[in-house]
Amino acid sequence: MPDPDHWRSRNVHWHAYVEIYESSAGDYSTRAQRLAGKPDIVLFAPEDAANWIATMIRRHIHRRAIRLIGSDGRVGHIGDEQHIEQALISNLDDLCHGNSVYQDIPRQTDRLHLWLEAVTPEQCPEAKHHRENP
């Protein structure tokens, strides 16, 4: 059974990056390119990282109705609280296992991409924030 605190044994923290693209078919930055740049924020606990994504979704998503799978014609919504809570739970599970999380947020005229890169001390170009934030 996978360890839900695997992030802790690997000493993982997350570098968060925000990018905006005109469409979902963009020429995205690579992990190496993102890690070579300065993160928008550095997060040290999976709960903080998951909450950061949820906050960004709430702030930026273009809420819209979608037809749910099935023949009864039910409608759901992208960007409602149920959708955000579902993303929070799923993201928290991934983060607790020490994984990176990538989130694509459709907005009115473009798409916001959130990249939470899981980083170990050996991979981190900024050794100083390990000492500042144990």
Automatic annotation (TrEMBL):
Q: State what protein this is by name.
A: Uncharacterized protein
Q: Native species of this protein?
A: Saccharopolyspora phatthalungensis
